[in-house]
Write a structure and sequence with these properties.
This protein is an alpha+beta fold. Helix content is 31%, strand content 18%. The strands form 3 sheets. The protein has a 3-stranded antiparallel sheet. This is Probable RNA 2'-phosphotransferase.
Amino acid sequence: MKVSKYLSKHLRHQPERIGLTLDPAGWVEIDTLLAATAAHGFRITRAELDHVVAANDKQRFAVDGTRIRASQGHSVEVDLGLPAAVPPPYLYHGTVARNLDAIRAEGLRPMNRHDVHLSADRETATRVGSRRGRPVVLAVDAGAMHRDGHVFQVSANGVWLTPSVPTRYLRFPAGH
């Protein structure tokens, strides 16, 4: 977990803190990454890196030959090159009750990321929401959004991405 969090921080948010420069699509050479982590006191072997990539339950990282990148969730400017995709009729977003007033007023916004992250099933959205407290799962009428011209992409690890979700496409659970 420690290695995964470290990699996420530097491949998604702050590559410059350890002297990395991501290419426009977010890729960096694995040897460059390993040298940078070691130079900043966080030694990772190639075997440890491969294990984290393979064993990460959320498949946060992608490897292409000698390169690695985060699958999504960047706050630094990258173009993942994902094609537009037709979403299922409904997608889901996990949050917590304290965020609901802002969501009702503004819809779902990417905040410090490039896109809003949506899940294909309620179970995954529940896990995402539970990271911040007691989860509340919102249903997103992705079919209607798509028909109305909103663009969706799906990352390599199955996370659905869209720039924003206006309130009219959200379904709040009873009691929320």
